[in-house]
Design goal:
This protein is α/β, with parallel strands linked by helices and 253 residues long. 19% of the residues lie in helices and 25% in strands. It has one domain: Ribonuclease Z/Hydroxyacylglutathione hydrolase-like (Metallo-beta-lactamase, Chain A). It binds zinc ion. The site of zinc ion has 4 residues, from loops.
Length: 253
């Protein structure tokens, strides 16, 4: 999907009460962001869930863009340790450009302005990988990043909004990714107001994610949305009130 860019792989741009966070800048992140009038020079933080290229491909250029090529020391980069040690995806020469680099660990909590987030559990994935619970002044939402499904996985996440990386249509024992039936179990346990499916593999894509999402809505009673390139989701939808004074969440996967 990434190599052919059947879906864009630039990650997600979180705009939370004035705080700008880029999550998982995969290949094309810079192009997708500027195309959508999102200015990387305004980023407060870049978060990397894990070092795989579909999540990290553009992280170096986005660090450069956030810091005006290193001329302005600003912003924070969050990444697991193995994105920085041997065979690093974050180049050494630009590690002094951001204000700091913070290492993600299991059970960690972090802050960017008045947004906080936690990395509750190390995921089952070939490299060190974390999902996130984000808390703003008004909302809590979880993003379940790549992982093999495991017992109690849903119990680590919470919130009115659940975003899940659904790579596979059906579970495959040998692949460390979530499948649609597993994400259904997560939705049924967390019972968010809204769930967003994203990060589709080829079989998911061929099965028309928007139709799968509609079926899942009927089966679970939770409003399930299939993400699409450039989709913008306003967190005010969780309140059922006017979007004024609220934060928005745009994604460009
Ligand atoms: Zn991965």
């Amino acid at each position: 999907m990434v190599a052919r860019q059947l879906l864009a792989s630039g990650g997600a741009w979180l705009s939370l009460g004035g705080t700008q966070i880029l999550l998982d800048p995969g290949p094309g992140s810079l192009v997708q962001a500027t195309k959508r009038k999102l200015d990387p020079a305004k980023l407060d933080a870049i978060i990397l869930s894990h070092r795989h290229l579909d999540h990290s491909g553009d992280i170096n250029i986005m660090i450069e863009a956030m810091t005006d090529g290193g001329r302005k020391k600003r912003g924070v980069v969050f990444a697991p340790n193995d994105a920085l040690d041997q065979d690093p995806v974050i180049l050494s020469y630009l590690r002094s450009f951001p204000e700091k680099i913070e290492i993600l660990t299991e059970g960690g909590s972090y802050k960017v302005n008045d947004v906080s987030f936690t990395t509750p559990i190390k995921h089952r994935h070939p490299v060190e990988t974390y999902g996130f619970i984000f808390r703003t002044q008004h909302h809590t939402f979880s993003w379940v990043i790549d992982t093999k499904y495991f017992d109690k996985l849903p119990s680590y996440y919470e919130g009115e909004l659940l975003i899940a990386n659904v790579v596979m249509l059906n579970p495959k024992v040998a692949v460390d990714h979530l499948s649609l039936p597993e994400v259904k179990m997560i939705i049924e346990e967390i019972k968010p107001k809204i769930a967003i499916l994203t990060h589709f593999g080829m079989n998911m894509w061929r099965a028309r994610p928007w139709e799968l999402a509609r079926n899942l809505s009927e089966e679970t009673g939770v409003s399930v949305i299939a993400a699409r390139d450039g989709m913008k989701f306003d967190l005010a939808r969780l309140e059922g009130v006017s979007p004024e004074a609220s934060s928005g969440l745009a994604r460009f996967e």
